Amino acid sequence: xxxxxxxxxxxxxxxxxxxxxxxxxxxxxxxxxxxxxxxxxxxxxxxxxxxxxxxxxxxxxxxxxxxxxxxxxxxxxxxxxxxxxxxxxxxxxxxxxxxxxxxxxxxxxxxxxxxxxxxxxxxxxxx
Length: 127
What we know:
By secondary structure, the protein is mainly alpha-helical. It has helices at residues 18-22, 26-50, 62-72, 82-116.
């Protein structure tokens, strides 16, 4: 536990934080044990369905069904957050402004060189 260094944008895992791991109230411990028992029961039910030799139908996992539906319909489950807004601005709006700035400054530089008479124009029919 002493060698662990936290990542800058991630929280410390619960198993490595002694304050959260050892200083739990009895209600929190009971709630965690209940959740673990529920997970174990669901896992046991799924395993018995999966390993049934007389099984004729497909095993339907409701969590997997929800996940597939959410992946197939992303726009009905999209929530705008600060991160998605920042990514949209960074990849949608910022490139437009950057290209405008590049083309505008290049054109202004060429116009200034033309007015000053310092632009060397090569006459070429091929390019």
